[in-house]
Design goal:
alpha/beta; Rossmann fold; N-(1-d-carboxylethyl)-l-norvaline Dehydrogenase, domain 2; 2-enoyl-CoA Hydratase, Chain A, domain 1; seven-stranded mixed β-sheet; binds 1,4-dihydronicotinamide adenine dinucleotide
Length: 778
């Protein structure tokens, strides 16, 4: 069995560099090679600068800066032998079959027996790539198609040829899934595979129809945006984001590769005014956000930055205007309401969706193993909210077929097959999908892959209120799910935490705290605190703080193991829940931190206490209590958020023994496994005491903040909040010989919190956050 322990990536451009970084994120050593640039002093210049550039890129390709050290750079002339001990060689060079094949011939001479070679091609079928290469090479060859940017886009399309070794292919798929955390979708060997075949058709149709139907850029983006389940950047905005110069190449490559009868041909023409406009834009450097601007641009005018949009007909920029279609509002009632709306937006939505959905239905069997693969590919590769077949279910297949027929357009057989039924069927706890043969078949999830939705299907929660629920995940493990808006924690969430802390009474032996949402929890619902403060209901507020503390302590001191499974944002109160769990099993993309200072408060549900204890008991940090406290103080007083689970380790939020799961769909299973392992010989934690320095430490912290204030890096009110934080972390009126209990630290938190909530400036911060969704630095 092929085992992947070392990787080589050839081509250090946008994709190659990003793939190398992500392999490094998985902790795997990687060799990165590119050509020797003409006239350069440093022959490995391209690969080296690619790594340096990535250390400055935002969003960061690396989950932790230190991962860059796992990449060994070189060039294809002097260092080709570096691939000799690599188990997987991933080619990501220019999209040209001849150049790619020449490279494979060279690689074949130096690679070790049994190593796998793959191409990251976006469009070229495997059959074309292996033409003329030997049998041995073909057996070790496959396609691994990542999406840009490789760290963040979850789709990984894989394709095997008729001769590809099964075990090599299996090893690649497992590596992509478990180590790289990707949604690995097997595709048939056809041009553009699944994502780009449909995605390129979609973007071509959407832009062309916008022009032909006389919509402005903003109008098109207001429909092929949120209303059709696409990120709000919209279709032209997406072009700006990915680079307008990329489009013509990919389309040209696809046009060459797809069969003559493919409907893509109907929408691509060199003579179309939009093709000419984009060519002119590229020529003039309007390649999108990376260039001078694109369909949108920002310009300075009279000392202000204003946003402008290109007029598709004149090619001139004019101030951006917000589109205001009634149909876009109707979309809230469903996709049908959108495409049936008579206004121009509704007509445009129908034009785009009718083409894209019937194209998907007509092609699915040729390009994919099943309809779910198509949906998953579009959702994870193009960030669509719903896949094409989910959308057809939303519209109703029979209705769609009738409307197409009514317009004299072809109706794909698969659409007819779904008439009167749906592509997805839920029966009790079972989920099945309609096969190409017209029969339903169960969706079998691989071992260790499930979301809470799979537990919830057809079942009732063990306990539930409007903000949170408890589910039975089997084997004696319960899952506590938050489900309020943005998973902001309110009274109901706290109540359910309290309930979860005694689920042993219901026969459970472990608890996982996790959910399927994009964000684990954005923190406490501060609206309630603001309301209370405006009415001067201080006892009510203090009680809310105390109740939250009690619930967290109950979670921590429960007689069974609790494993928090955060993913996405876990901020403020959400972070505090994690800090009170016995262990954390985090998704690699977890953005966690105590951000209360941003709303003029301090972490009052035990966050100050836990971060102090974590840092004070961290035996790896030398130098006594001061450096440990400074670390906690810095994190809290600057509202620091780890931008990955790996970074959260540096902040002591994740401790030794806590785990990181790369694949979002494996997080809960891994957390459950951890919880069960801990349940075997679990003992309740002993109350913790720490020796804290008291006022001497507080003085040092105040001095540090004062320094930031003098440098203009902190506002005066920041120093006021920081002093309250410092007072808690240093232990209040104590000295290093005295032991400070958890209870005492919680008391200090409450005092600090109550002092701050009475301050007008704190209320301004809260109000600003609630209305503007970003912190105010007053
Ligand atoms: P790029 O232009 O950023 O990088 C290509 C790299 O190949 C450059 O660093 C170049 O120096 C190197 N190169 C050029 N000629 C070479 C040769 N003869 N031998 C070895 N290296 C050579 O291109 P990008 O975007 O990274 O694309 C690479 C591959 O990934 C292509 O096959 C592309 O279709 C595919 N792809 C691109 C995506 C994107 O969004 N940019 C997404 C998915 C796949």
């Amino acid at each position: 069995m092929t085992e992947i322990n070392k990787v080589a990536v050839i081509g250090a451009g946008v994709m190659g560099a990003g793939i190398a970084a992500h392999v490094a994120n998985a902790g795997i050593p990687v060799v990165l090679l590119d050509i020797v640039p003409e006239g350069a002093d440093d022959r490995s210049f391209i690969a080296k600068t690619a790594v340096e550039r990535m250390l400055k890129t935002n969003p960061a390709p690396f989950m932790h800066r230190k991962n860059a050290r796992l990449i060994e750079t070189g060039n294809l002339e002097d260092n080709l032998d570096l691939v000799a001990d690599c188990d997987w060689i991933c080619e990501a060079i220019v999209e040209n079959p001849k150049i790619k094949r020449d490279l494979y011939a060279r690689l074949d001479k130096v690679r070790k027996a049994g190593s796998v070679v793959t191409s990251n091609t976006s469009t070229i079928p495997l059959e074309v790539l292996t033409e003329g290469l030997g049998e041995g090479f073909a057996q070790d060859f496959a396609i691994t198609h990542f999406f840009n940017p490789p760290r963040y886009m979850r789709l990984l399309e894989v394709v095997k040829g008729p001769r590809t070794r099964d075990d090599a292919y299996a090893a690649l798929k497992a590596f992509g899934d478990v180590r790289l955390g990707k949604e690995v979708i097997e595709c048939k060997d056809t041009p553009g595979f699944i994502g780009n075949r449909i995605g390129i058709f979609w973007s071509t149709v959407a832009t062309r129809q916008a022009y032909d139907m006389g919509l402005t850029v903003e109008e098109a983006d207001s429909i092929v945006g949120r209303p059709t389940g696409v990120p709000k950047t919209g279709i032209f905005g997406l072009g700006d984001l990915t680079g307008i110069d990329l489009g013509p190449h990919v389309i040209a490559s696809m046009i060459d590769l797809v069969p003559a009868e493919d409907p893509l041909h109907d929408f691509v023409s060199q003579d179309h005014p939009l093709t000419k406009l984009t060519a002119k834009m590229i020529e003039e450097g309007y390649t999108g956000r990376k260039g001078k601007g694109g369909f949108y641009r920002r310009v300075r005018q009279d000392g202000r930055t204003i946003k402008e949009t290109i007029d598709l007909r004149s090619g001139e920029y004019r101030p951006t205007q917000k589109a205001d279609f009634e149909s876009a509002k109707a979309a809230k009632k469903g996709l049908r309401a959108l495409v049936e709306h008579p206004d121009k937006g509704g007509q445009y939505a129908w034009a785009v969706l009718s083409h894209v959905l019937s194209y998907s239905a007509a092609l699915a069997e040729e390009i994919a193993a099943d309809i779910r693969s198509v949906d998953l590919a579009m959702k994870t590769g193009y960030a669509w909210k719903w896949g094409p077949f989910e959308m057809i279910d939303m519209l109703d297949a029979g209705w769609l077929a009738d409307r197409l027929a009514g317009e004299g357009r072809p109706v794909p057989a698969l659409l007819e097959a779904a008439r009167g039924r749906s592509f997805y069927r839920e029966e009790g706890e079972k989920l099945s999908i309609l096969g190409f043969d017209g029969e339903y078949r169960d969706v079998d999830l691989p071992e260790g892959v499930w979301m809470l939705a799979d537990i919830k299907r057809g079942r009732q929660p063990v306990k539930s209120n409007a903000s949170a629920s408890i589910w039975d995940a089997g084997d004696g493990v319960a899952v506590l799910e938050f489900h309020s808006k943005m998973n902001a924690l309110d009274e109901g969430s706290i109540e359910m935490i309290r309930q979860a802390a005694k689920i042993d009474k219901l026969g459970f032996r472990a608890l996982v705290v996790g959910n399927d949402a994009d964000n684990f929890s954005v923190g406490a619902n501060v609206g309630v605190a603001l309301f209370g403060a405006n009415a001067a209901m201080w006892p009510l507020i203090e009680n809310g703080v105390a109740e939250g503390q009690k619930a967290m302590q109950a979670l921590k001191n429960s007689p069974f193991p609790v494993v928090a499974a955060p993913a996405g944002m876990a901020l403020g109160g959400g972070c505090e829940v994690c800090l009170h769990a016995d262990a954390i099993q985090a998704h690699a993309e977890t953005y966690i931190g105590l951000v209360e200072v941003g709303v003029g408060l301090l972490p009052g549900w035990g966050g100050c206490k836990e971060l102090t204890i974590r840092n004070m008991t961290n035996t790896k940090r030398p130098g006594g209590p001061m450096p440990a406290l400074s670390a906690a103080f810095e994190a809290i007083s600057t509202a620091k958020v780890a931008t990955s689970a790996q970074e959260a380790r540096d902040m002591q939020i994740l401790r030794e023994g806590d785990g990181i799961t790369m694949n979002r769909r494996r997080v809960l299973a891994d957390a459950k496994k951890k919880a069960l392992a801990m349940a075997a010989d679990y003992t309740q934690p002993e109350p913790i005491v720490v020796n804290l320095p008291g006022p001497t430490a507080l003085a040092a912290m105040k001095m540090a903040v004062e320094g930031f204030y003098l440098q203009g890096k902190a506002t005066e009110y920041d120093t006021v909040i920081a002093e309250q934080v410092g007072r808690v972390l240093s232990g209040g009126d104590t000295d290093i010989t005295e032991e400070v209990t958890e209870k005492k630290l919680l008391e200090l938190e409450r005092e600090g919190f109550m002092t701050l909530i009475r301050n007008e400036k704190t209320l301004q911060r809260i109000e600003h956050m609630l209305t503007k969704n970003r912190p105010l630095r007053n």
